[in-house]
Amino acid sequence: MKRGRILDISDCCVHVTHRCHNRDFLLKFGLDRRSYVPRLRETVKRFDVGVLDHVVTSNDVHLLLRACRVDDVSRAMQYLQGLVARDCNRRKKRSGAFWSDRFKPTLVQNGSHLCRCLFYIGLNMVRAGAVEHPAEWAACGYHELTGRCQRYRIVDVPLLLNCLEMPEQSAHFLEWYERTMQTMCESGYLCREPLWSEAAAVGSRAWIESLSGTVVTGRREIVPMGFGNSDVVPAVEEGAGSYALKLSPKRRQMLWRP
């Protein structure tokens, strides 16, 4: 039997998370986090991958990417994380593993599902208690998404708007995104939603079922996706709700190997 591959999907959005080795705080200094961003910019120029959002924390990174093919993400991440590990190890005069195993990818359906992922990433350091608002954390996409950062941009805002099904609405998006983020911070939207990192995919039930059909072996499960204070994020219609495709960790990684 032919092994199913999520790699066959084209034009996809992917939420990528990657932790430092042993959950150590290898990115705890501002210099470490700032050095990650130029390497991300270099990677985008080298591979056919677009950045929709990002945040670099003290011990992990969250990237929201758009790729023409899923295996482009695997190659880009291998290149990016190799560069960052080399840079940081040289600067810190350390040796050994910098990252913990492979990165964790989660496919995200366009529209409202991507919208919720965007805010989940943006609020990462607020949930961690490091800041009260994303504007206070330098190594994140908030500054580009709100127009505060105009030089050395990484986030492809027009591409993001297309994926959110809000094409050519940059002015409306800027006002809406900033207002919604402020509302979510004030309303205490701080719950962690593990499926954003642990699931193989998040989207509508029909979309998830179409993906699970490509996985011809192994155990799989489709579960409802909760979003906590979901009323705060009215970007596009939620439709019939959101669901997550859960696979075993081994099976999930096999689907992403080039």
Distance between the termini: 19 Å
CATH C-level class is Alpha Beta
Poorly predicted parts: 228-232, 234-239
Question: Which bin fits the share of residues in helices?
Answer: 25-40%
Number of domains: 1
Order of helices and strands: EHEEHEHHHHHHEHEEH
Q: Main β-sheet, in a few words?
A: 7 strands, mixed
CATH topology term:
Alpha-Beta Plaits
Strand content: 15-25%
Strand segment count: 7
In DSSP terms (H or I, runs of 4 or more residues), the helix count works out at: 10
Description of the structure:
The protein is α+β, with helices and mostly antiparallel strands. It has a single domain, classed as Transposase IS200-like (Alpha-Beta Plaits, 2-Layer Sandwich), CATH 3.30.70. Helix content is 39%, strand content 18%. The chain is built from ten helices and seven strands. It has a seven-stranded mixed sheet with strand order 2-3-1-4-5-7-6, with helices on both faces. Helix 1 (30-46) runs antiparallel to helix 2 (70-92). The longest helix is centred in the N-terminal third of the chain and has 23 residues, at 70-92. It is globular and about 50 Å long. The two termini are 19 Å apart. 39% of the residues are buried.
